[in-house]
Amino acid sequence: MLAVGDKVVYPMHGAGIIEAVEEHEVMGERREYFILTMPCGGMRVMIPLDNVEHIGLREVICEAEVDKVFCTLRTAVPQPCINWNRRFNLNLAKIKSGNIHEVAEVVRNLTLQDRVKKLSTGERRLLDTARQILVSELVLVCRKDAEVIAKSLDSIIDEGPVGV
Prior knowledge:
With about 160 residues, the protein is of the alpha+beta class. It has helices spanning about 50-55, 65-75, 85-95, 100-115, 120-140, 145-160, and strands spanning about 5-10, 15-25, 30-35, 45-50, 60. Helix 3 runs antiparallel to helix 4.
């Protein structure tokens, strides 16, 4: 059970800290909400307690899992030749899953794709969203500044993927 002080990931928004549980009336209905503060950008988000499982709210990964995320960024996976629209939908589904490894795959794949052929505006936004989600979780896990984490990700991807 999640509680105040827990570090969590809200798919499509990123990682945050549960600051409070408050009761609010929204659209004529009183419900209890988790109040999340997102460290990247300082945004506050209200999530209905009875909707937590449905939206995929989860605790952040442990420190031991960080190396596996970095390994995901380093591992080359042959990309099937699919059109940008199908690729966009597949990547969006991965981000919505809330799985940090799938989000890391999106960051890796779209970054590498951008180096071969510039991304469309939609895919550029998707890459930016995936990076923000990945960075926000790693900020909470590694207890480092967002700029430091972002530079680490760039460095890992710049090393070039290994294996195929």
